[in-house]
Each structure stands twice: as C-alpha cells, then as structure tokens.
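Try this one yourself first.
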C-alpha cells in the first residue's frame, strides 16, 4: 500500500517507522514522475518489509526542502530516522529495488 505523506503524518509514518520507508517526491505536472509512479506502486505491492509513501512537492514544500529535493522525481529511503539512500530522476525498477535494504 502506498500512503500519502504530509508534514502532519511525516514524523509518525517515516521517522518513527519500524520498517525502511521509500519516499517518492513527485509533482502532478512532472512527466518522468508519471513514468516512475507505477514502478513505485509495484514495489509497494511486492515488498511488504518496506513502507512506501508519496510526497507531492507542491503540497508539501517543507518536506521537499528538508530532503533538499531540487528536481523531481526524487526517491529517498529513510531507515531509523535517517536518509540511507537518495536519487533524482526516473529509474528502472531494478535501480529502485537496489536502493532498498535486503529483504
């Protein structure tokens, strides 16, 4: 399941998560984001050991700034309250999976 991450639920869902969290920073106007979105959705269905959230940078500019998101899409993996991996630009599924800790 993919959840929408906002500044209101960020601390609970991301920082205090007992599982690694894959965050997809995106914007509705971004073409590459639309290409990456189904891949992120697939990862969410296949990896129950990872929490997956999407952050709309236009609706959540504070979170985008906190993660230093300068271009979208940007993926970030947060584990134990710290960013352990981050990449900008659309990626094939194999590269998205490679960012995640082993199952």
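Now uncover the answer:
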């Amino acid at each position: 399941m993919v959840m929408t991450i906002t500044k209101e639920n960020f601390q609970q869902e991301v920082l205090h998560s007992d599982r690694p969290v894959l965050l997809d920073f995106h914007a509705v106007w971004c073409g590459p984001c639309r290409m990456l979105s189904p891949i992120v959705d697939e990862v969410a269905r296949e990896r129950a050991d990872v929490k997956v959230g999407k952050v709309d940078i236009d609706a959540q500019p504070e979170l985008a700034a906190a993660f230093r998101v300068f271009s979208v899409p940007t993926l970030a993996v947060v584990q134990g309250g710290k960013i352990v991996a981050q990449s900008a630009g659309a990626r094939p599924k194999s590269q998205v999976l490679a960012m995640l800790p082993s199952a």
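Discussion: The radius of gyration is 12 Å. Residues 75 and 87 are 5 Å apart (CA to CA).
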